[in-house]
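Person: I keep going back and forth on a fold encoding question. Show me how you would write down a chain together with its backbone fold. Please set it down just below, with no commentary around it:
Helper:
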Amino acid sequence: GRAGLALALGPRGFDAIVCDLVMPDVDGAAIHAAVVAADPARARRLVFITGGAVSPQTGAFLERDDVTVLPKPFGLDDLLAVIDRVAGPR
């Protein structure tokens, strides 16, 4: 999580950032907050994947309008569609 956050906040640009919601050292909500604080435009390119079984706090995070979620299980077509949606026109 921390290494991914460092990459997400680094100088290299990304079309999309796919991030698991539950990780051992930093959760998806914390990553989202850090990216929003640093670069709100980049935060719109975050996609969170989750298998469910979340806490009420995490559930509330997933219901926000500014959070894109891809529930597990998903197929390649689902993944590509959500990446196309958050990446925008190229």
Remarks:
- The radius of gyration is 12 Å.
- The mean pLDDT is 89.
